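To make the argument concrete, we let one protein speak, a sequence paired with a row of structure tokens, as a model reads it:
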Amino acid sequence: MPLDWRRGLAVVAHPDDLEYGASGAVAEWVEGGREIAYVLVTRGEAGIDSLPPEESARVREAEQMAGAAAVGVRTVEFLDHADGVIEEGPALRADLAAAVRRHRPELVITLNHRDTWGGNTWNTPDHRVVGRAVLDAVGDAGNRWIFPEQLGEGGLEPWNGVRWVAVAASPRSTHAQVLGDAALERGVASLVAHRAYVTGLGETDPEGYARSLLIGGSERESERFGGRRCTPFELFPR
């Protein structure tokens, strides 16, 4: 992964999306002095079957704040699109372009936008829609004639400074961020922070689940990336 950047912006559909793999890399980057902000398109209100949407949104927002704090991220924003039925189109792109213009990142991180996770494991509509919209919105953010209402009185300016979009959990990963032990442990802690969500999946030991998933995953990926535990990304240069 390129490391000659200072500001990053992670944009995903749901609370927990970043914690399922990318947060260890975020911990490594923050430890190296980089600034990263999180933007969540929804509050995850449809994510816990045993909780009504309003309560789920409250719980998952709090868990996301804790998960971000575990890896040193202080800025977390929620866009309040509807969980499970995020609509593709200009309204979503406008919100994401505004986030890019507001935070002015050099690296943008998102989650797998492809149809599957690899093989025949089908991806969800929200992940596909948001991932593709992020890739589009990075270009939108630099064009003053797209969503011009955000400029001038809107207080924003075009931003052409994004140099890469890094897609986590892509079945077509091309690059990887090596993870030290401390970053891996912070990544585990960030997923454990989503205790209500993980428990809602039927896992009775959230810490054991997170440790097995994230540490085991980083070790499996090491086989493709020089024998070092890592988080892989599909990198799109801009």
User: Anything to note?
Assistant: The first strand starts at residue 7 and ends at 12. The chain has seven helices and seven strands. Helices lie at 23-31, 53-70, 90-103, 125-141, 181-192, 195-200, 206-221.
